């Protein structure tokens, strides 16, 4: 199922991320695609805040993987930014597959690791003519009963 949602501003983008929080569970992968500044990290920040994170979540651009664990958040989360990954083989060193059994993965720039997470909730952000964003969601079968909109 593919669906599109108009997000008029950054507040709406974070609110969309927050709307995912009641539906996520360990083992889920949410990929976030879009140009620089499209709102990928805003969705992640909204989701993390709704999972209980106090304070602002930093972009994991330089760390590549930013972990969050209970009690800081409701469930373990790995916020991953693959922008600086040049070769998909580098992902083996990050231990993401091992962590997936008990954590939620939020993956920015998933196109750097094509076909790595075929069952992910794939979210893509593009610029809207009014300055907002168009979010296109490719909702896999495992998410259909949980899809919040």
TrEMBL record:
PANTHER family reported in the protein's UniProt record: TRNA THREONYLCARBAMOYLADENOSINE BIOSYNTHESIS PROTEIN TSAE
Subcellular location: Cytoplasm
SUPFAM superfamilies with a match to the protein in the record: P-loop containing nucleoside triphosphate hydrolases (SSF52540)
Family as reported in the entry's similarity comment: Belongs to the TsaE family.
InterPro entries assigned to the protein according to its UniProt record, in alphabetical order: P-loop_NTPase, T6A_TsaE
Gene coding for it: tsaE
GO molecular function: ATP binding; metal ion binding
Name of protein: tRNA threonylcarbamoyladenosine biosynthesis protein TsaE
Biological process annotations from GO: tRNA threonylcarbamoyladenosine modification
Keyword tags: ATP-binding, Cytoplasm, Magnesium, Metal-binding, Nucleotide-binding, tRNA processing
Pfam families in the cross-refs: TsaE
Organism classification: Bacteria, Pseudomonadati, Pseudomonadota, Alphaproteobacteria, Sphingomonadales
GO cellular component: cytoplasm
């Amino acid at each position: 199922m593919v669906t599109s949602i108009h997000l008029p501003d950054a507040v709406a983008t974070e609110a969309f991320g927050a709307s995912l929080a009641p539906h996520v569970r360990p083992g889920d992968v949410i990929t976030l695609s879009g140009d620089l500044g499209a709102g990928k990290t805003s969705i992640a920040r909204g989701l993390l805040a709704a999972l209980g994170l106090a304070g602002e979540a930093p972009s994991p651009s330089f760390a590549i993987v930013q972990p969050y664990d209970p009690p800081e958040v409701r469930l373990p989360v790995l916020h991953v930014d693959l922008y600086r990954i040049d070769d998909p083989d580098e992902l083996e060193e990050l231990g993401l597959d091992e962590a997936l059994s008990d954590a939620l993965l939020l993956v920015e720039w998933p196109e750097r690791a094509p076909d790595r997470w075929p069952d992910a909730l794939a979210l893509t952000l593009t610029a809207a003519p009014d300055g907002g964003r168009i979010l296109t969601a490719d909702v896999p079968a495992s998410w259909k009963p949980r899809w919040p909109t």
